[in-house]
Write a structure and sequence with these properties.
The complex is a heterodimer of chains A (511) and B (73). Chain A has 511 residues and is of the alpha/beta class. Chain A is built from 20 helices and 15 strands. Chain B is of the alpha+beta class and 73 residues long. Chain B has a four-stranded antiparallel sheet, covered by helices on one side. In chain B, helix 1 packs antiparallel against helix 2. The longest helix of chain B is centred in the N-terminal third of the chain and has 11 residues. The termini of chain B are close together. The chains are: A alpha/beta (511), B alpha+beta (73). Chains A and B meet through strand 10 and helix 10 of A and helix 1 and strand 2 of B.
Amino acid sequence: MRIVFLYMGAENLGVQYLSSVLKKNGHETFMVFDPALFNDKYWLTINSLSKFFDQKKEIIEKVISLKPDLVAFSVFTDCYKWASFIAKGVKQKLPNVPTIFGGIHPTSVPEEVIMEDFVDYIGVGEGEESLLEFVNKLEKKEDIRNIPGIWAKDSSTGLIYKNPIRVLSDNIDSIPYPDKEMFNPHLPIKNGYMIAASRGCPYSCTFCSNNLYNKIYKGNGKWLRRRSTENIISELKEMKAKYNFDKVDFVDDIFTCHRDWLKEFLNVYKKEINLPFKCITHPHFMNDEIAIQLKSAGCYAVALGVQSTNESYKLKVLKRYESNEKVKEATLALKKSGISVILQHIVGLPDETEQDLIEAANFYIDLKPTRIECYTLAYFPATEIVDIAMERGKIDKNILKSINTGGENMYFDGGSLREKREQKQARSFSHLLSLVTFLPRQLSRFFVNTRIWKYFYLIPNGAVTLAEVGVVLVTREHRAINYIKYYINTSFSLFLKMIKKPAHMTTGLNK
Amino acid sequence: MEKQDIIIKADMDELGSISRVIQKKGDFQSIEQEGECLVIIARIPLDEFDNIKEDLKKALINDFSIELLNKKN
């Protein structure tokens, strides 16, 4: 069968795995990628520019031209509106071609997504085995109404078949290596290789989708799984030979959460791969010993979630259990070993006070990490923080509906804050955190103590972006540098296409 | 300081309470899932085993087990 996948803005490992499983079983897969410049939900949102570079109509044309047997969307909440627009357009032109929505958004609110006219099926939970069974049966024209992990809508009767979630497989080594070729024409793999050594996270932070996955997979198999060293190294070797990338990006939720495995893995990685890499971890799993091991194996940057520095608040509202002391120890261990430290913070939390922000700013000024990624809280469907916000009167039913249909702004774009005062405060704080990493401590403290920081919302976003670009260049953060290059190249090539052809004649990027 | 590894097996929902106890005196070594349980290995000072066991008894709602693994320098 010919399966057309769609995605926007960034590389997606989940889609790559789905494609590889289908290809291995004899199906043809295609990727129609929308660069969604300046509205990519990840790096940059500039509305005026995003309208200029909008490619949605061309994306629909491209899907139609591929003559698909199935159109598959991997949907995060932030791209649900985009996916809906494209699916509607495709359905108008190809009413008999089924559409399937999978990913975290349909998994979170399946009841709502399956009701949409442009959605025929949804994938709930991890998709490799479910999608393969679905596609195989679809091809053979067998009954596809009772596949675990797939909800089906009978278009003639309107009946919905809500099948149970598929029990997870323990052995993730058996999944074929991700199909990197899907994204390679758009986001060249040679610039950096995205890989996951594990799946799942033991924590249940209230704002994170793992909070939901931990609940739905309770009693349905092992959620926390790790690949063997041999399997990961073999993938990296094979892909390095193919794409000749020069850096590796481990996207595991907690890369260092098993010290014996980590020690063994890093030794082999250094011998066999020996490329600079970046990873994400939790402050509980970082100390001097781990930092030294990481550095010695080639680690150049580590991202750590902090989210709030009010310990009692983060415990109660966010279910984050690490103390500030642990965050400090972890950051200092990394700095001492010469690894760049990226701390992640959430602003705009329900009932957060100005004092909380000031204390957080002082904490970061003391620590001075390499960079602070400050996200405005975006509520994701079915996460616990949505219930907390409703209990506290921060969210009403209308806002809940907007959350469940992807109508909220995302974390780089104002998040779920509605009051102007809150938006200004969040923007000021975010700008402050962007600056404290490279300003002298005394100057940062001056801004905080005199409350000048409260007026930082007046600084144009462009100026702060430029400052951040400067930090990225100085710290040589490859992923961000590649995105800057990608933005420049893609904007330029799209601009050239637009001035050469009338808009309705363009065919999109995916050729 | 002489340290020892301990192994704790507990319900997955208890990770928060375990974290709060362990982080005061020790370090996490690993977290794995075994069926519906979390298996946590932590490194703690040699003389803290009984105190940590007592703290966990107070903090955890569900049944759990804690055992000594081995000494580390």
